[in-house]
Amino acid sequence: MWQSYIKHFKNYLRLERSFSDNSVQAYIRDTEKLAEYLEIAAINLSPADIKEEHLLAFLKYLSELGLSAHTQARMLSGIKAFYKYLILENEISEDPTELIEAPRLPRKLPDVLSYPEIEQILQAIDHSTPEGTRNRAIIEVLYSSGLRVSELVGLQLTFCYFDIGFIRILGKGDKVRLVPIGKEAIKYTQLYLDHVRSEIPAKKESEDIVFLNRRGGQLSRVMVFLIIKDAAEKAGISKNVSPHTFRHSFATHLIEGGASLRAVQEMLGHESITTTEIYTHLDRDYLRQIITEFHPRK
Question: Can you give the pLDDT at residue 278?
């Protein structure tokens, strides 16, 4: 139902508006994300039947996934263009986007990092120290897999399946999920395990924990916050950076790159947004493919 409208919209942008290929792809991607959201939410409506309430729910969903206000505003502008086109073609008489304002860009500095900023932070870490080796691995894992800080500090050795590129995460409400982990994150975590952690006598209750403090105990959440703050400061990043920043950046970079909403939702460990649908987990090979195709650090 939506694909036909989107196809005609694409032709309109390309032929009548003479937009560049990049601009056309951006507008189409935004419109397809709305269509995908409606499918996830089990809202079976054509573009002509969409109301303002559905669009507001879509923006709320994007916000809950951790997308920045800037990204939401950009996606909304693509959807507004789609509905202006439908009015022009007399497909609809009222524009459901007319009264929707773009999410206000916060006055405080945004908490999503660009990929160059993430690289800046990683490069500023002193790899010659045991703590530096560990901290590089921590940031790589946070950005590679979009983990909550509580999930990172609780990550267990027996749940790291590096040979197949996955880690098993115990999330909110003791929900277990398998999350892809990129090659760079595996590389630096393995370096830490081989050269640093292997030299630390782990406390009995932390024997299976990946990231340890100097005394062989599990890292606290506060300690991870301090590690991140320190790394961002050393890199000269003035944004308000926390462990959650990497989770937001993970989701934003994947979706802006073209990854599906459903895949990102699953990797983040979010609940299904509809209670009427039994949420089926996506194929693991597909999630692995999403990281390989769309994550900047693979």
Answer: 36
